[in-house]
Amino acid sequence: MSSTHVHTYVFWCAIFILLYTYAGYPLWIYLRSRLHPRPPHQASILPTVSIILAVHNGAALLRQKVAHLLSLDYPQDRMEIEIVSDGSTDGTDDILKELRGPHVKCFRCSEHSGKAAALNLGMQWATGEILLFLDIRPWIERDALQLLISNFADPSVGCVAGELVLREDGHDAGAKAIGGLYWRYEQWIRNCEAKVDSPLGVYGGFYAIRRKLASALPEGTILDDMLQPLSVIRQGYRSVLDLRARVYDIWPKSLRGEFHRKVRTLAGNFQLLQIAPWLLSRENRLRFELISHKLMRLLVPILMVILLASSASLASHSVLYMGALASQIVFYLLAALGSARNIPILTRVAAPASAFCMLNAAVVVGLYKFLFTRGPLWKIWTSGAPSSFATDGPEGADWNATALNLPLHDQLRARGVTR
């Protein structure tokens, strides 16, 4: 076989794998979701709920967060709030002393050990039938918890997540492309997976599982919101999404900030295969979906290089390959200009290309960080101390104003929580 034939074969193999990764698998799971949907049974139920909130340096928001949780439409006598301070140094631990009471349990990790350690401590002391995992920043709609819990009326459901709505205030074009176009694409795939069986991961700032199915997280786990739901699925249950249960959050406002966040997440994908090798065995009934949805995307940077090199070697033999090469060069130039030049029209046009290239560059850096980082992997990126809530609309303003204008002990008393 001549070198031209080899390069042609390599070119079309790379094209096929890229098309399958971004279009073929999504189309397949979409068709399955339309032909064989499995909606969960939903009913109004009121199991006891343990809310586990892991916090690191959250003093600026902690009082308001507790007030927000107490304002949710769920009976207070069926709910307990567990707050775990993960080695905080900003006064969070002093606030915990104020909050401690019959319905508010407070714990402290003596050292900053990462979210997994904090969640493990919370799970150890939780007593509710359902465990709800939260982050401090997101704002939850008032009826979201009750809607989320209604899915546990189905005995086959072991994990439930809500609908994450991302806010775009003050974000640059590249970050908006990720939070807008890419996130809608990703959510669409997850929703299709959930209709068929289960999504591969959930939003880690607002999801619930049955306590009897909870698994201790390996030390230093980054993607608890993938490992915990997949561990539930491993035990024969489903993970589902409830689009009625809405939660609002924000993400980094610049493409650079989003890059660092994605590096950590993608390093977490590599870590996941290391700490849970059963994910690639028959024990994981979603093994095919995991490979198609998550793992094949880790190969895309290599495929991009192969596609560029093979089309360059074939460009002199055919107009088709010349056009393929020219298209790639224009695409990468557009991505570079869009991220480097603050020209409004150019930035908007180039934002999808910049976002795509950034995501795939993050795969390479994420692999490097996974292989060569010394010390805990979760430390490679931190978002800093949260300073504002992701509120949205007049309801968000209402609860936030209430939390700020009333002393916390009055909020607790009004909700029947005593110390």
Largest sheet: 8 strands, mixed
**What is the helix tally?**
14
Neighbour order of strands in the largest sheet: 3-2-1-4-7-6-8-5
Write the H/E string, N to C: HEHEHEHEEHEHEHEHHHHHHH
Helix coverage percent? 40-55%
State which percent range the strand residues make up: 5-15%
Q: What overall geometry do the principal axes of the alpha carbons give? A: globular
Radius of gyration: 23 Å
> Termini distance?
80 Å
Oligomer: single chain
Structure description:
With 419 residues, the protein is of the alpha/beta class. 53% of the residues lie in helices and 13% in strands. An eight-stranded mixed sheet has the order 3-2-1-4-7-6-8-5, sandwiched between helices. Strand 2, helix 3 (92-99) and strand 3 form a beta-alpha-beta unit. The longest helix has 33 residues, at 3-35. The protein is globular, with a radius of gyration of 23 Å.
Task: For this entry, give a set of tags.
disordered C terminus, 419 residues, alpha/beta
Short description:
This protein has 419 residues and is α/β, with parallel strands linked by helices. The protein is built from 14 helices and 8 strands. The protein is globular.
Task: Break the fold down into its secondary structure elements and pairings.
Blueprint: H1 3-35, E1 49-55, H2 59-70, E2 79-86, H3 92-99, E3 104-109, H4 115-125, E4 130-134, E5 139-140, H5 144-150, E6 157-166, H6 173-196, E7 206-210, H7 224-234, E8 238-249, H8 255-275, H9 287-295, H10 300-314, H11 319-340, H12 344-372, H13 393-405, H14 408-414
Helix pairs in contact: 1-6, 1-10, 2-3, 2-13, 6-8, 6-12, 8-12, 10-11, 11-12
